[in-house]
Structures are given as C-alpha cells and as structure tokens.
Amino acid sequence: MGALRLVGWLMLAALAPGAAHLKAGWRRTGLTLLGCYATALLALLAVGLTTDLGAFGQLLDDAWLIAIMVGSAVLGVAWFAMIVHSFTLLRPGRLRQAEQIVTGALAGLIAVAVLAPFAVTTQYVWTAREAINDIFKDAVPDPQADDGTPPLPVVEDPWAGRDRVNVLLLGGDADDHRPGVRTDSMHLASVDVRTGNTVLFSLPRNLEDVRFKPGTPMAEHFPDGFRLPPDPGGGRSDLLNSVWEYSDAHPEIFGGQQNQGPEVLKETIGYTLGLEVDWYALVNMWGFARLIDAIGGITVTVEQDVIFGRYNEGLVKAGTRKLKGADAMWYARSRTNSDDYTRMRRQRCVISALLDQADPATVLARFTAIAGATKELIRTDVPRDMLRHLVPLALKVQDAKVTSIQFVPPLIKTYDPDWQQIRKLVRQALRDSAGTTAIAASAAPTATPSTGSATPSTTPSTTPSATPSAESSATPSATPSRTKTPKKTADPDDASPTDLAEGCGKA
C-alpha cells in the first residue's frame, strides 16, 4: 500500500470508524465499529427530531453537564486511539523511511484533529458549568445539613396553573468609588409561559413618592411614600433607583436583617405594576461593557453625538458604527445634554442590539470570554434548579413577540405618578401580548383606587404569575405595534406597547 492510500484510509477511518480495520482484514472489529457508529448517528438523529425545548433545559442540570464532559473526554480518547491503531494495522513499516516519517506525521495530525472537537466540547461544558454554578445558587438545602432542615421538594412543572413569569432586570452602577448599589436601569420582563410573548416594562430611575407594599417594614417606615430630606449637595436619595441602596443601608428597619435591598425592590416594583415579581437579575453596567467586548462589540446607529465623562472629555460620534463595551455603555448612560428618558431609550437600544447580534456562531466562537464576563457581571436570585425550566422559556422568547412600555412623561408624571393608570396600562399590555380579550379575574387586583389617587391600593396576587384581569369596556386598546416610528402622545390612555427596538436606529 502506498503512502497516499494509507493516509486516505486513515482519513476515511476518522469519518467512519472501522473502515481501516476492514481494509486490514480485521473484519469483525471493523463491522462492530461501523455498526456502533451508525447506531449512534441514527440515535442522535432520532433525538434531534423528537426532542422538545424542555430537553435543552435538562442539559443544564449539573449531573448532565458532568456526564457530557466525561462522555466527550472518553469518546475523544477512544477516537484518538482508534486512529493510532488503524495506522499500525495498515503496516506503515512496509513504506520507505521517508514515507514512514511523512505518513506518521500525517497520522498524528489526523489523530489530533479527531480529538480536538471532543476536547473543545469538554472545555466549553466545564466553563459553562463553572459559570452557571457561580451565578446561580442551589435553593434546595443540603439534606445532610447540621440544622436538620429538610430539603425543599423539586418542582417538575413550575408553570402548572400559571400564565406568566415576571423577572426584574436591573442595571446597577456599583463601583469602587460609590458605596451601595443604585439601580439606574429597571425593566420588568413579563413572559407568557405558553407562547413566549414578552412585555418589557421600563421604569424611570427618578420616579418619586414611591409606595411600598402594605404590611411590609418599608411601608410602615414610609406610610406616605418614599421621602427623605434633600441631600446637602442638592441631589435626591429618595427616588426609585435608591430603594435597594437605602434598604441595604438601614437593616434596623428589618429587625437587623442584612442585604434586604433585592427583596424590597422586587416587591416595590411588583406593587407599583400590580404584578408579583418572581426573580431579579442585576447586571453591573460596567461589567456589561465587558460582555459586549467579549462578543466583539455591537453595531448601533447613534442618532446624534453623545458627549460623556465628568468633564465632557469623551464623544461617541453620530452614525452607524461598531462600539466597544466602554463606548456602548457611555452611549447608553451619558447624562450630558440628555434627560433620563432619552437614556432609557438608548439603554433599550443597546439591549436590543446585543440580543440581535449575539448569534449562536458568535457565542460559540467567543464562548470562554463570554462565560468569564458573565460570571463577573450578573447577580441573581434565580435558583440553580430553575434553569432547566427557564432555558426552554428563553428559547421561546427568541422567536416570540417582544413589546415594551416606558413609564415616562408624557405617559406618567414622575413627580406625581398616577398609580392606578400605571396598573391599568400594565394589565392592558399583558392582555394584548397574550392575544386575548379577557383574562381570568382570579388574578385581578382586589381594590382599585379612585383616579388620581397618590397611594396605590391595588394588591398583587399572591400567585407568582399574577396575570392581569379583564378591564372594563372603557379601557382603551393598547395594540402592540411593530412600526419603527415612536408613538408620541400626551394622552396616557392611548399608550401602545412598542417593539423593543422601536425608536432605535438600524444598521
């Protein structure tokens, strides 16, 4: 057998294990290898054709991740060994010395080539497992815990009897030069568990006179709303974006319990919107810049020059351009010559661009960098065991309708919010997102304040899904729009949810 034929049989063996064994006369071994290979391919095809979205979530279970790593490593070593054995069976010793050297080197390259995909898979799964376990904590107590606390039951179908899941998405600005966390970006994503249709409710950082859920320590401490004496420097520390920071800084309000900021903000925003918030995810805004860098930057259309920096020393020029992480964050967060509502729109545009441009190919190519950046920037109370259910839901959202409402002027007055109107718009938007004219009244708020009431009296349902109730026929329609022209109206009863990217320039 010549050198070229030997290398050809090795390459065939790499694609169809057992081919070289058959050529060398190892008929039984060759047929066994080919049979196992064909069976595995058919099994993978069958799984791919019959697997539903729920199976993708199962793959994130820790046991499955470990099994995938071990299986990938074993298969890689076995395939490598098969190539080496195939090379020896083809008797390269009958070749001239120079041909032996060349074919041996090529055989080594082929062996490494078949091993590489398994090694990369093992590395990716290891990296993903580390990131997941760092970000998401297991909510089920250890059965062997010293305090004897029994483990919580694992719920197989957490969406049973539920219509929606509500997740609070926060952008914080914590850094080494500022104590505490101010949540300058606050969006609540309400996801229909059946269709994946999502409504993103955006709340302004400067919402005043915030009301707390009745019966809570903050409501007792601030019965007339969140009001504090003015800061000596003239700033405000009693706006919605300060609720988390204030709660963390005053554990005495909660009987000495520390780190109450996340729960207080969840229940406060949930009460404001008339929904029950299931979980939160806090993204450090400057950590978010590292994530954008990890995917290679994002392309956005900057409508006009954006000046940034304490002394206006930076500039993001107008035009369609690819922004690195730091510039993208300055574009989203700069206050120079800009109000909070324009900043909210720019933040939404950055999120939309990231979602659109973080395609699977980019994620795979930059997986390690993305995983490393993600570990540094996310803080959440989503339990580890819930990932198996949330991943299929997130996949539904990718192909579903995503609309948004920004509670900013002229829709609401941030200095004197109409809480009743906010809730009414929330309920209408969720009905429209669900594509129904009426939702079961069992999740409806128990009381409705009179128009213009400063104190919100609508109490969210105790069910986490907190679906909206049917409004009276006087409630205006808020049909989600896919047009790219922002709708501007001073009539708060005529506010339509808009596409997430509406008002954003397109590349």
3D structure, described in words:
The protein is of the alpha+beta class and 507 residues long. The protein folds into 2 domains: 3-135, no CATH class; 164-499, 3-Layer(aba) Sandwich (Aminopeptidase), CATH 3.40.630.190. The chain contains 16 helices and 11 strands. A 7-stranded mixed sheet has the order 9-4-1-2-3-10-11. A two-stranded antiparallel sheet has the order 5-8. Helix 1 runs parallel beside helix 6. The longest helix has 39 residues, at 97-135. 34% of the residues are buried. The model is unreliable at 140-153 and 436-492 (pLDDT under 50).
> What is the CATH T-level topology of the largest domain?
Aminopeptidase
CATH superfamily of the largest domain: LCP protein
| Reported CATH architecture of the largest domain | 3-Layer(aba) Sandwich
Per the principal axes of the C-alpha atoms, what is the gross shape? elongated
Pick out its properties:
507 residues; alpha+beta; Aminopeptidase; two-stranded antiparallel ribbon; 11 strands; 44% helix; elongated
Q: Would you summarize the structure shown here?
A:
The protein is of the alpha+beta class. The chain has helices spanning 3-15, 19-23, 27-50, 53-58, 62-89, 97-135, 217-221, 243-249, 261-273, 285-294, 325-333, 340-357, 360-365, 367-377, 387-398, 419-434, and strands at 164-172, 183-192, 198-203, 279-284, 298-302, 306-308, 314-316, 319-323, 378-380, 402-406, 498-499.
Tell me the layout of helices and strands.
Blueprint: H1 3-15, H2 19-23, H3 27-50, H4 53-58, H5 62-89, H6 97-135, E1 164-172, E2 183-192, E3 198-203, H7 217-221, H8 243-249, H9 261-273, E4 279-284, H10 285-294, E5 298-302, E6 306-308, E7 314-316, E8 319-323, H11 325-333, H12 340-357, H13 360-365, H14 367-377, E9 378-380, H15 387-398, E10 402-406, H16 419-434, E11 498-499
Parallel strand pairs: 1-4, 3-10
Antiparallel strand pairs: 1-2, 2-3, 4-9, 5-8, 6-7, 10-11
Helix pairs in contact: 1-5, 1-6, 5-6, 6-14, 8-9, 10-11, 10-14, 11-12
